[in-house]
Amino acid sequence: MAKRKIKIGIVCLTRNTFDYKAAEDIYRGIVRDLSARDDIVVAAYPAPVMLQDEAVAAGEYLRGEGVEAVAVLSGTFHLGILALEIKKRCDKPLLLWGLPELPYNGGKIRLNSVCGVNLNASNLYKSGYRDFTYSVSEKIDENWLDAVRMISALREGRICVLGSRAHGFYNVDVDELALYRKYGCSVEFAELSEAFSFPADEALAKEYLDRADGAFDCGGITGTQKKKVAALCASLRTFAEKRGFSAVAVRCWPEFAATYGIAPCASMSLLQDDGLIFACEGDVDCALTMMCHRAAGAESPFMADVSQVNPDENTALMWHCGVAPRALCDKSCPATLDTYFAGGKGVTAGFVLKCGRVEMARLDSVGGHYRLYTERGEAVPMQKQLTGTYAKVRFDRPANEVLDAIVYNGVAHHVSMVYGDFSAAFDIFARLTDTEKL
Questions:
Q1: 3-state SS string over the chain?
Q2: Which among 140, 165, 188 is the end of a domain?
């Protein structure tokens, strides 16, 4: 899955008492390599910065370029005012980037770059700026880039709550203005009827009908139900794309099945194979987390519950009613469309998820205050015994500790689950956005 494209600034700080010529050569090589990438746009200040007025000019340049974050490369040790002037004029998340020391030349330290990182960090911290992280490497910190992608996705994000949250699920409610203030993401509301009756191309509905037949065993549902699944796919996709929504959080029961004739689960499964983000039960915070995962390049984020815990095996059943993308199905498992609930109107996807490394995460709000919960483990083999989409996950730490963390911190009962490990990027995201890490 392609990562979100972002625009970053980069500037090199030097001092002529060190080997600033070598630092400039390194900087130009870094800029050349970064500029060749497809996943970022680079605004590089053209000359190394040594003096305060040069730092002022660099900050103005980066602000004018509209960058989303700035990598401040300590090419050598440098004056302490430089990073402060840049940050004052271009107040974006920072990477304080240090270079490994070059071989000594004539008994002198040539760069002293790490000390420059230390200087910048201390000055920024004591000036009240905390939205920075650091790295000492010849290459840019990819986890910092992914964290910036997450921040960018939320800042530009528009989430539609279709209907409202599910009845009684007070724990997934959000303070919309607190969310906007924290991450810049806006929340809008629409009636269920607006989406499932949204005009859509009949050819698109036919495409989804063919895909449902090709991807699933549809013997458990009627032909009418299958057509409704396809038509709903076309309407929901057109609705989300025409209205410019980054994600849709759906009140998927009880009114949806009663009014439309089927619940949206199977349609959401098919749509998420197309890269769209749909969260069940009106859960905005889970949609936020799915957006972060997608921005960092995660394959097909989907919603899951910690449904069953087995402390002896150190496992949990990560389950939901049947919305995971079909692409994540274990190849040895039949994928079905089933009538699961709502008096036979459920129409959910049913399969066991593939094995592999997984991450569960949730941005979770309490009275407008945001926390970040993450967990990692391994999806292990299991037989298909249930309806819905699910995986048996063996955690990296004792299952009782996992359950303690969820229960005693009041974390809501939905997580964004993906294959891979984005924990380092999430850690940096939390630092850059001042989000509490559970």
A1: CCCCCEEEEEEEECCCCCCHHHHHHHHHHHHHHHHCCCCEEEEECCCCECCHHHHHHHHHHHHHCCCCEEEEEECCCCCCHHHHHHHHHCCCCEEEEECCCCCCECCECCCCHHHHHHHHHHHHHHCCCCCEEEEECCCCCHHHHHHHHHHHHHHCCEEEEECCCCCCCHHHCCCHHHHHHHHCCEEEEECHHHHHCCCCCHHHHHHHHHHHHHHCECCCCCHHHHHHHHHHHHHHHHHHHHHCCCEEEECCCCHHHHHHCCCCHHHHHHHHCCCCCEEHHHCHHHHHHHHHHHHCCCEEEEEEEEEEEECCCCEEEEEECCCCCHHHECCCCCCEEECCCCCCCCCEEEEEECCEEEEEEEEEEECCEEEEEEEEEEEECCCCCCCCEEEEEEECCCHHHHHHHHHHCCCCCCEEEEECCCHHHHHHHHHHHCCEEC
A2: 140
pTM of the model: 0.96
Residue 114's domain comprises 6-140
State whether 395 and 313 are in the same domain. yes
351-379 pLDDT, tens digit per residue, is: 999 999 999 999 999 999 999 999 999 99
Same domain, 59 and 179: no
Does the pLDDT at position 120 exceed 70?
yes
User: Which pLDDT tens digit goes with each residue over 394-419?
Assistant: 999 999 999 999 999 999 999 999 99
